[in-house]
Structures are given as C-alpha cells and as structure tokens.
Amino acid sequence: MAFLSIDKQWELISRGAEEILPEKELREKLEKSRKNGTPLIVKLGCDPSRPDLHVGHGVVLRKLRHFQDLGHQAILVIGDFTAMIGDPSGRNKTRPQLTLEEAKANAESYIEQAVHILNSESIKIVYNSTWLNEMRFSDVIRLSSHYTVARMIERDDFTKRYQSEIPISIHEFMYPLAQGMDSVELKADVELGGTDQKFNLLVGRDLQREYDQAPQAIITLPLLEGTDGVEKMSKSYGNDIGLTDSPEDMYGKSMSISDEMIEKYFVLAADADADTVLKVQKQLQDSSVNPRDIKRELARAIVALYHGSEAAQSAEKHFDQVVVNKDIPDEMDEVALTDDAPLVDIITIEGLTKSKGDARRMIKQGAVRIEGKKISDIKFILSKGNEVVIKVGKRKFLRVK
To answer: Which class in CATH covers the domain with range 333-400?
Structure first.
C-alpha cells in the first residue's frame, strides 16, 4: 500500500509524545515500511485491572489510532495473564493480583470502551495468556536468564522500595519479562506506553535482541493529570473524565480544569494539531482573552471527539443553562417512589453518586439540594406523594415523582 511521506507520518506520530526511542531507528523502520509497502506492527498492551476507561487512557489509545490512520497494523494486547502478576510500575507496594476470570471480565468492558477511539475494523486484539500460559517452567527459566537482578533493581520503583525495606516479591520481577515476551511473540516494530512504562518497554527491546529479532522502537506518552490538576487521572481519585460519560458530564468536567492545564488538555485530551496548539498558546498569553472562553473551546473539542460536534453544541447549551444561569434543565432522569426512601439510597441507586459513602460526603459538603434547598442531614427521608427535583453537585439532576 502507499504510505504518506516520512515527514507527514512523523508529524502525527510525534504529536503529544514524551519520548521516541531511538528516533533514528523508528525513522528507518518507517522508511523500510514505505519502500516495501508493508505496515509496521504497532503494539499497545493494557492490563484490564479495572473495567473503566477515561480520557487519560485515551492518550495512548489515540496514539495507536494515529498509527491505524497512517495504515499500520495496530495490535491491542489484553494483558489477562500479566494482570494476574500486577504491574509494579509507579507502585510503592505489591499490586493485588487478579484471577484470569476477573481479568477477562474486565477486558470485555475495556474493549467495548476502547473502540470509541480505535478503528474496530482494522484493530487486532490478542490476549497474552494465549502464549504466556503455554510456557513451560524451562521456558520461564530461560527467559529469566536473560536479565539480571542488578538491572531490575535499577528500576526506580524497585530501588525506592528496596531502600525503604518495602518487600519486593520475586513474581514482580517477572512482569516486565512477561510484557517483553509479548513483543517477542508479536515481533513488534513499535510499542506504545505511558512514561511510567518506559522500563518495561525497554525490556521488550532487550528481549527481542536475545531472541534474534530487530528491537522495537518505543514511544512514551505523558500521564494526564485529572480535573484537579494534581493527581494522575483516576476514577478512584474522582478526577476522571470517562470515555463513556454523557456529553453533558464530559463538557462540565472539562470546564472544571485549572487554567494551567488548558494547553496540556488540548494536546493530550482533545488530540489538537500543532496549529491549534499554537493558537491556544497565543490566546493564553493574551490578557484580553478570558481563559474561560478558551476552556469552552477545549470542552467542545473533547466532547466532539467522542460524541460528535452536534452533541458538543448541545452539551454547551446545557452547561450554560444549568451551571451559568443556574436553571433547571428541561429534560432529566425521573424515578417514581412507591414508598418513603432515604435520600442517600435514591441518589446512589440512580447514579448521581458513586456510592453511599460518596452520597453522604456530598450531603455533608452541602452539594445536594432538593427544590433549591440545601440538604445537610445524611438521614434525610424522601416522602412518597411529593414531586421534587434533586440536584447533586453542579450538573446532576433527578426528578422524583
């Protein structure tokens, strides 16, 4: 097939990347691919440790989509086997292990969400239990002989834990080796990952050499902070923008980020091209431009990326009505009470809060209102026979009939 020029491909491949190692090797691979009309094999591994994805996960998934758009073979490796080990990256203690069944159940949800970004027609999805489960103990011994304990301890995560006398289990050393075997099995030309995956990706290069393969080039992508601008985006921190969030929630959460995060979100969350980023940089330096207006453009771009431009316009209209003008939206979910019920139960069951604990916290913080009146009693009971509107936070509404 005919590929774009190397410079044109590089423009998209390098967008938002933290590091490309080694750049020269990747350019050579692209040149050979273009000359022979053969797509590169581009690998992204993901351990389905949780079933929920957010736009932070979308950063690396979007890069895999870039390679798809350029005509290369993208492979999504579901780490159902490696999830049983637990990735030690960025951890100060041993990660809980999953069963193979738990990993596979999470993987189904992961794939359903990932195809919101990836081209489902050309993506190749594989499970690494297919080959890792088939390895004999002699194969594992041979694999582990290719790496030394000293090199493993060079890893920052392990160094800190070793110096702090925090236990490191032997099976954790096997994680980067198992991930590296994925690259050997697939004969990967390129592997993608977050910056916290750099060590694992480099191990893949080393193992490919040991198994007489051309080593893969690696591309690392920055980790995206959540809407709080502090912690890495995570559902457990409550600072995430979910891939399957409604357009209204996605828009509202995007508007809540700090001004300092605007440019980074354009690059990583909205997948903005160089011209757009340059325009945003100039706007942010112009004191006559209100950052809120730039953020509106960002929120529309993020929603449009996942839901389309019409949904983005509608989400902005909803935001203006509910948040800016503090009106009650015309449309909202409804629930009918057949008996008196605790407020905590209702807002949790109907999805306005993540859990009963979250519901109690929101009530204590004064973030729950009924008919505009702030509710502070966590034991508040909703009586049947009354029609009221419940508001949780700035954007979530429920009509109780």
So the answer is: alpha beta
Neighbours of 184 (CB within 10 A): 19
Q: For position 92, what pLDDT does the model report?
A: 47
The confidence score (pLDDT) of residue 325 equals 67
Phi/psi of residue 184, nearest 5 degrees: -65, -45
Superfamily of structural domain 235-324? Tyrosyl-Transfer RNA Synthetase (1.10.240.10)
Treating both helix axes as pointing N-terminal to C-terminal, what angle do 170-186 and 137-144 enclose, rounded to 10 degrees? 90
Quote the Cα angle for 209-16-155, to 5°.
Answer: 45
> What is the dihedral sign for C-alpha 83, 127, 134, 213?
negative
Q: Residue 250 has which token pair?
A: 């996605």
Q: State the Cα–Cα distance between residues 375 and 390, nearest whole angstrom.
A: 10
The encoded tokens of residue 377 equal 């009693």
Question: What residues have CB less than 8 Å from 317, skipping those under 6 apart?
Answer: none
Identical fold at 6-221 and 235-324?
A: no
Question: What Rg value do the Cα atoms of the chain yield, rounded?
Answer: 24
Report which residue type is found at 206.
D
Tokens of 217: 């080039």
Strand locations in 144-288 (E): 190-194, 217-221
Type and span of the H or E element at 335: strand 333-335
> Is residue 303 within a helix (H) or strand (E), and if so which, with residue range?
helix 291-307
Query: Using one digit for the tens of pLDDT, what is the confidence trace for 267-293?
Result: 999 999 999 999 999 999 999 999 999
pLDDT tens string 203-225: 999 999 999 999 999 999 999 99
Closest of 155, 153, 149 to residue 200, by C-alpha: 155
36-64 pLDDT tens trace = 999 999 999 988 777 678 999 999 999 99
Mean pLDDT (whole number) for 104-123:
89
Domain boundaries, given as residue ranges, for the chain: 6-221, 235-324, 333-400
CB 232 within 8 A of CB 56: yes
Query: Spelled out in words, what is the top-level CATH class assigned to the domain 6-221?
Result: alpha beta
Of the candidates 231, 239, 236, 305, which has an alpha carbon nearest to the alpha carbon of residue 61? 305
